[in-house]
Structure formats: structure tokens, C-alpha cells
Write a structure and sequence with these properties.
Blueprint: H1 7-30, H2 37-50, E1 54-55, E2 74-77, E3 80-82, E4 96-105, E5 108-117, H3 124-143, H4 150-163, E6 174-176, E7 183-187, E8 204-207, E9 210-212, E10 218-220, E11 227-229, E12 235-237, E13 240-244, E14 249-251
Antiparallel strand pairs: 1-4, 2-4, 3-11, 4-5, 6-7, 6-8, 8-13, 9-12, 10-11, 13-14
Helix pairs in contact: 3-4
Length: 261
């Protein structure tokens, strides 16, 4: 299903996107050496409830997972990259943490992810990987607009990631979003320009470049959810929800300090 949102729903999408961004930034500020992943999950649940919103994750039960996800935020550490299920783990100096959050409010969902390094240690290879996903995300957003095609976004993202030297997995990527978290069209993280669905104003997309340092192969944890690099290498993941407008694309999940005044 591909949804095209009317102006009323687009306004709600902006509201939801701002909430997702604010929760992620609060979680980032609280995620320090000694923080437990289960505490991050509890903080997320409270902030969602306090905002009168609903989690897109807690009851999520797709074919690729094992039963309901059962938590409110994805917490992926070091070699984990997608669908990181929170567990009893205490963050250490130098850990690379990805937080991925999807929330619905007013009948519209928004989805975003950030990767960052905990503590004072900043391994250069981890810094470079995070930067590559952020630059790829910016390139994908720049390629989005009315009349552009999904392949244009995929090509822009893939070009940045490939030039940075990272293998690209196309099994999981970006997606449409609206009244539900995951919708068509699928937006792979590499592709050919000029191909695929033609973008229209009112379409919401969640774009999410992610990479693993030296492999494109994933393995699934015993929890049935968490996806890790097959080689144990580090990973990174960046994501924004955008709205296609009459003139381009608007980022709905910008942190408060980056939003237009």
C-alpha cells in the first residue's frame, strides 16, 4: 500500500516527526557509560505515553521477527545494526550505539534512527562509518522530490556508501510510512537512477542508510530479532522520515536545534 497524505495528515506527520526527534535526542543525552539498555527502553515507553502517542514497535510482529517485538525502541550496539532488541547490557566507553524509534500520534507514524559513540573514546573507523551513513542520508534526501523516482534516491545513497568503501545489503532499507510504520515503496540503499515508483507530493518516506564495516551479510541473534554483522564488525545506521512536497522534500524528524525557526 502506498499512501498520499492530505494537508491535515501532513500536519500531524510533522507533529509526530518532531516528537520522535525529541525523544531520540533525550535518549542520546541520557545514554552514557553505565546506562543499561533496558533503562533506555523504559525511558522511551514513558516519554511515548506522556506525549499521548503509541509505540509502533511493542506489538510489532512481522514475518521476519519472532513474536511481538515487546519493546519501545531498538537499541543496537557495536556489531548489531537493525531491530536491536533491548536486553540487560550496560554501555561501556567507546560503544557504538544505534537508537531506532517509530511512534504514531494522531493516526500518523514517523521513524528515525541515530548512531553515536558512548563516552570519550572515539574510534576513527566508527566515526567515519557514522559520517558515511549521515552523508548518504543527506544525499538521498537531496535526490527526493516530486517527479523523482525511488531509484534516484537509492542511487544517491548507494553512491556515497560505495565511495566510502562499504558493502551494501539491499534486504532491508527505507520504506513508505503513513498510517502504519512500514509501507510501500521499498527504498533500497543502492539502485539505478530513473527506475521505480515516481514520487508525488504528500508521500512520506523513511530513508535509512546503514552499513557494516566489512560485510553485507547479516546474522540473526537468538532473540529472533536483532540483526548483526556476520563478521562481528561494527555497524552504523541513520534515518529520517521525509515528506515529498511540491518543491522537494521536507525532513520531519529533525532535532529541535536543527528545525527552521
Amino acid at each position: 500500500m502506498i499512501e498520499i497524505l492530505n494537508p491535515t495528515l501532513l500536519a500531524r506527520a510533522k507533529d509526530t516527526g518532531a516528537l520522535v526527534a525529541d525523544i531520540l535526542q533525550t535518549l542520546r543525552s541520557r545514554s552514557a557509560i553505565g546506562t543499561n539498555l533496558l533503562d533506555i527502553d523504559r525511558w522511551t515507553a514513558k516519554m511515548i505515553a506522556d506525549a499521548g502517542a503509541q509505540s509502533c514497535y511493542v506489538d510489532y510482529e512481522p514475518s521476519f521477527g519472532r513474536g511481538p517485538f515487546g519493546h519501545y525502541v531498538c537499541t543496537a550496539v557495536n556489531d548489531a545494526v537493525l531491530h536491536g532488541r533491548p536486553y540487560d547490557y550496560t554501555l561501556a566507553d567507546g560503544d557504538l550505539l544505534t537508537l531506532d524509534l517509530a511512534v504514531s500520534r494522531g493516526g500518523v507514524a514517523a521513524d528515525s534512527a541515530i548512531s553515536f559513540i558512548v563516552g570519550d573514546s572515539k574510534p576513527p573507523e566508527s566515526v567515519a562509518m557514522i559520517s558515511a551513513t549521515e552523508r548518504a542520508l543527506a544525499a538521498g534526501i537531496a535526490a527526493a522530490g516530486p517527479g523523482a523516482r525511488v531509484g534516484d534516491i537509492s542511487h544517491a545513497i548507494g553512491t556515497v556508501l560505495s565511495e566510502a568503501g562499504y558493502p551494501i545489503n539491499t534486504e532491508f532499507g527505507g520504506h513508505g510510512i503513513g498510517s502504519t510504520m512500514h509501507q510501500d515503496p521499498h527504498v533500497p540503499n543502492t539502485g539505478r537512477p530513473g527506475r521505480g515508483y515516481k514520487l508525488r507530493p504528500g508521500l512520506l518516506l523513511a530513508l535509512e542508510p546503514w552499513v557494516m564495516a566489512d560485510t553485507a551479510q547479516l546474522v540473526t541473534d537468538a532473540d529472533g530479532w536483532t540483526l548483526r554483522s556476520a563478521t562481528g564488525c561494527r555497524t552504523a545506521h541513520s534515518e529520517h522520515t521525509i515528506a515529498i512536497t511540491d518543491t522537494g522534500a521536507e525532513i520531519l524528524t529533525l532535532p529541535k536545534q536543527a528545525r527552521p525557526s
